[in-house]
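[job 0412] stage=complex_fold ligand=flavin-adenine dinucleotide status=START
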Amino acid sequence: MTRTWMADQIFPELFKFYQFAEEKLKTKFFYPQPLYRPFLSAEEQNEWMGLSSNTTIKPYIEKILTTSAHGDQVYDPFGGIVLNQCGFLDVNGFLAGIQNYLQDKQSIKFEHFDDGLMEVDTEGIVYKNYRAAKIIFCNGIGSLNSSRFEKLPIRLLKGETLTIELEEVPELIYNRGVYLVPLANNRYRVGATYETKNLARGTTEMGRIELDQKLKALIKIPYQVVSQDWGFRPTTPDRRPILGEYPESKNVIIFNGLGTKGVSLAPYFSAQLVNWLLGRGEIQSEVNIKRFKSLSSKSREVV
Ligand SMILES: Cc1cc2nc3c(=O)[nH]c(=O)nc-3n(C[C@H](O)[C@H](O)[C@H](O)COP(=O)(O)OP(=O)(O)OC[C@H]3O[C@@H](n4cnc5c(N)ncnc54)[C@H](O)[C@@H]3O)c2cc1C
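[job 0412] stage=complex_fold status=DONE, emitting structure tokens
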């Protein structure tokens, strides 16, 4: 019941960015659409009614429904809230579009990057037969495999999802405990779990049961589970991204820690990183790598 961090800056940027990317790549992958969140109780309904006049939250509320509005598809006896500035990104479609674009320009290579082979000298970076002024590491949890970045505070947050087939098309995106977003061929993605302790690779029975139970509490539409998937999110101790030059590694730039929100954070913060690289602006302190004092050898000596 609060606005997400920096929503007023981040949301306009993401809508602009993905719409621009669709035009540039001539592919459809961005689907802005309202989201319906059923209320669990009359108290929750009242709280939202109170909040709806709050000027900072109002722009995100399309309407508040005090009686069941989608009761044939979801459990919403107390009504619910329709939020705007919502939607979903077909991430695979977006990535495929970008990869094709870069391939056409012969500007991408698909290979493992071995940072043990990378050298940093006074003029920049040398890697195999490449020389570059700078290098940007946007390798997510891959940073954990590198001794170079062993102090970078990236933490794993495991998530599992289900792919289901529904017997009816949902009228909106539904979200309560889990989200339900469309894929192709009448299939839908249900997600996600948040697991910090059991970090074994692969899907789990526990994950399936949790998602199944939450989905059953949300929708009335019959469904079949088609498959289950999992992944690790690259999070940080303060749940903010990490941007900037890795301490004592001149020209080695980090863009990481997007955590649970890469889709919404990446457009805004990649622009911020580029502006900083071009000398047109600063990296804000909340996301600046400099906030982790323990990364520099000086403070390691103190410790
Ligand atoms: C189950 C689940 C649900 C999620 N749901 C959402 C959601 O609803 N909304 C949202 O915004 N975010 C969601 N996320 C989070 C989102 O996926 C992350 O925020 C995002 O992927 C982070 O992007 P990234 O580019 O920093 O890292 P990644 O997506 O991890 O990309 C890093 C890339 O670097 C590559 N790489 C690493 N090391 C090397 C190397 N040595 N050589 C070559 N390549 C390398 C990896 O292969 C990978 O392709 C979810 C994540 C999970 C697991």
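The pocket of flavin-adenine dinucleotide is lined by residues 112-113, 138-142, 159, 161, 191-192, 231, 233-234, 256, 258-264 (CB under 6 Å).
[job 0412] exit 0
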